[in-house]
């Protein structure tokens, strides 16, 4: 008799273990082989692949709603930001997700003992033979060769049963392309991870050395210095809550500042800061290298730090110096460091795009990857970027969700919107197959600027011959303000009225084969600030610098001063600002920019117009207005 219940249970569990069957659906598909690679052969079917299945997180459908709940100016929970623990708990993949994927693998003949769940429950891993992987994913794996000789395993597309597909973000390796090319072998600059490497991604531009520094309000059309920015945006404020406040600037090695350059700038413009340095937070072996110098190595960091440190003085600045000299780093490496729940090789990174630490190839940083070791500052400005098309939609979406989580925790995340107008970094445009070339005809939006959970910052200029009292235009000297409409992200509710107004009042004379004309996609940038003619000390000389690279840290400085005022009044930091700045309560808190455009891809781009536009967003900051309105919020 003792055996009977057990037997019954065993029979029952057999009955329930009938494999679930649902039709196969294509989960991810790549349209073209990335430049530099060619398919060389079918992979050996007995070889073993480390297969990693990224699980869909819970409550992602409520992400925007949850973020609006703490960021919407009319919400009862405005400013009640979440703890990191609450964020991790809310979005961890559900039991049902984990079980569905496990059952599917079990039903497909994979022994449970071969399946491993990562610590943060976000990945399921197993070592599968090529034959098993091809059967699981209904695909074919090929070996691809790079012109440098490097080989990579990939497929063109793969399928999952429908009931499994909805629980999976992505499977690796699959269509995602290997960027693990040592940069020394890769003069073409196609490495995606080394976002700080000269020639990769977004960089400020210079027209050369300044012969004499004008530093006059009358000359802001020729040279931007601190007095110009203070006059343009009404920045008159002495920080008082510096011990409570924080402002972080992110740099990617080998980009680095030189202390001698900071001192040279401060000596001329902010004498009390001579000898001051940012608070260095080293991430994954990052340090302010001095081995390589020149505009291409020091321009970005010198610009960001000289202006940010001066504008928020005496507020100390945190410098998140990310990545070593060998492997470099990606945005995910930075995000891992400031949010432990996003972190680890197993918890969100894609070895095809992100650097792996300790350096598996030797010669680089040998320490453990930084995971939750750095505290996120209240405002974080980054002047680096990719083109959306450099990344797969799934990869971009996963990273974008992380920016929403930082918003839930009270951090304002700013990214420069790009310097090539409607074209992408490097002045590349899209072709219909998704490839990017100089002669492409489709606009090429930048990332993370198109992520609806970051604040994207475009560039303006003081018009030639004009004074600081006159309205600025979209920047049309040396660089053009990045802007347009995402191909990956839907329009968030907070900007719907503003963007619909633009599309209705000024219908762009372009077709759906030039830009995402659905009227339902995320428009960027959100705001703008001056990006032309900055006087920056670089390698012992004053140079004239252009770019949204300047606009982002200047906007970050202004928002940091707003945080100071709120913190001094016992209020929370402003956190994710987009729902607030697009709300009626903030109408008129930005200087609307209505002239200029953002040319690219053989067109004049979009026009700056009255109201929001995909060139300068809502406009440039009016600091006294912003402080007053943010102090009026709870
Ligand atoms: C896969 O194999 C590698 C090398 O043998 C091993 O280190 C790793 O733990 C294995 N992974 C799983 C999920 O079994
Ligand atoms: C566009 O440029 C690519 C190389 O970047 C070239 O292969 C292609 O032929 C060009 N197409 C046209 C229409 O000129
Ligand atoms: C346009 O944007 C929408 C919303 O993000 C997206 O679903 C659609 O695929 C995009 N269209 C193109 C052509 O990229
Ligand atoms: C920009 O404005 C000019 C002049 O009003 C107009 O001819 C052009 O069609 C507009 N372009 C766009 C993209 O809206």
Automatic annotation (TrEMBL):
PROSITE patterns per the UniProt record, alphabetical: SEDOLISIN
Record-annotated Peptidase S53 domain positions: 223-633
Cofactor(s) needed: Ca(2+)
Active site: 300 (charge relay system), 304 (charge relay system), 549 (charge relay system)
Residues noted as binding Ca(2+) in the record, renumbered to the chain: 592-593, 611, 613
Enzyme Commission code: 3.4.14.10
GO molecular function (one): tripeptidyl-peptidase activity
UniProt GO cellular component terms: extracellular region
UniProt KW Calcium keyword: yes
Subcellular localization: Secreted, Extracellular space
UniProt protein name: tripeptidyl-peptidase II
Source lineage: Eukaryota, Fungi, Dikarya, Basidiomycota, Agaricomycotina
């Amino acid at each position: 008799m003792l055996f009977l219940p057990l037997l019954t249970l065993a029979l029952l569990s057999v009955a329930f273990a009938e494999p679930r069957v649902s039709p196969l659906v294509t989960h991810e598909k790549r349209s073209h082989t990335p430049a530099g690679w060619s398919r060389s052969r079918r992979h050996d079917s007995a070889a073993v692949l480390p297969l990693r299945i990224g699980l869909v997180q819970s409550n992602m459908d409520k992400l925007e709603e949850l973020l609006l709940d703490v960021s919407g100016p009319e919400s009862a929970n405005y400013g009640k930001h979440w703890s990191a623990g609450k964020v991790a708990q809310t979005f961890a993949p559900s039991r049902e997700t984990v079980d569905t994927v496990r059952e599917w693998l079990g039903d497909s003949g994979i022994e449970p003992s071969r399946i491993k769940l990562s610590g943060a429950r976000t990945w399921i891993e197993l070592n599968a033979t090529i034959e098993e992987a091809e059967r699981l994913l209904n695909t074919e794996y090929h070996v691809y060769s790079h012109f440098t000789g490097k080989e990579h395993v990939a497929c063109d597309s793969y399928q999952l049963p429908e009931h499994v597909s909805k629980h999976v973000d992505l499977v690796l390796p699959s269509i995602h392309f290997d960027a693990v090319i040592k940069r020394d072998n890769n003069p073409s600059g196609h490495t995606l991870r080394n976002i700080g490497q000269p020639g990769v991604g977004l960089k400020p531009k210079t027209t050369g050395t300044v012969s004499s520094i004008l530093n006059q309000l009358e000359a802001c059309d020729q040279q931007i210095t601190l007095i110009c920015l203070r006059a343009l945006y009404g920045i008159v404020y002495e920080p008082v809550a510096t011990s409570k406040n924080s402002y972080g600037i992110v740099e990617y090695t080998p980009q680095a500042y030189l202390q001698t350059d900071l001192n040279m700038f401060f000596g001329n413009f902010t004498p009390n800061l001579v000898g001051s340095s940012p608070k260095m937070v080293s991430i994954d072996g990052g340090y302010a290298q001095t081995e390589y110098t020149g505009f291409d190595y020091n321009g970005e960091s010198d610009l960001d730090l000289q202006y940010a440190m001066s504008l928020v003085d005496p507020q100390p600045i945190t410098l998140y110096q990310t990545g070593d000299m060998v492997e470099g780093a990606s945005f995910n490496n930075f995000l891992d460091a400031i949010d432990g729940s996003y972190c680890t090789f197993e918890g969100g990174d894609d070895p095809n795009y992100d650097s792996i630490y300790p350096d598996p190839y030797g010669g680089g940083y040998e320490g453990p990857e930084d995971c939750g070791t750095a505290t996120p500052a209240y405002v974080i400005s980054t002047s680096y970027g990719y083109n959306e098309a450099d990344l797969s939609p799934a990869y971009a979406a996963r990273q974008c969700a992380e920016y929403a989580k930082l918003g839930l925790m009270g951090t304002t995340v700013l990214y420069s919107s790009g310097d090539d107008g409607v074209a992408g970094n490097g002045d590349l445009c899209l072709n219909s197959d998704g490839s990017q070339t100089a002669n492409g005809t489709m606009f090429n939006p930048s990332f993370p600027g198109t992520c609806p959970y970051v604040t994207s910052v475009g560039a303006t200029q003081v018009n030639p011959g004009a004074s600081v009292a006159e309205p600025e235009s979209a920047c049309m000297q040396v660089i053009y303000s990045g802007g347009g409409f995402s191909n990956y992200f839907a329009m968030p509710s907070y900007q719907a009225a503003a963007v619909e107004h633009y599309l209705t009042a000024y219908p762009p004379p372009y077709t759906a084969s030039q830009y995402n004309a659905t009227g339902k996609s995320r428009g960027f940038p959100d705001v703008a600030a001056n990006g032309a003619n900055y006087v920056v000390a670089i390698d012992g000389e004053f140079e004239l610098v252009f770019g949204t690279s300047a606009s982002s840290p200047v906007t970050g400085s202004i928002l940091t001063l707003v945080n100071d005022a709120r913190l001094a009044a016992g209020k929370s930091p402003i956190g994710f600002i987009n729902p607030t700045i697009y709300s009626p309560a903030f109408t008129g808190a930005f200087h609307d920019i209505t002239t200029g455009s953002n040319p690219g891809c053989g067109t004049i781009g979009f026009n700056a117009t009255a109201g929001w536009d995909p060139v300068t967003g809502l406009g440039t900051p009016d600091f006294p207005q912003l402080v007053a309105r943010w102090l009026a919020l709870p």
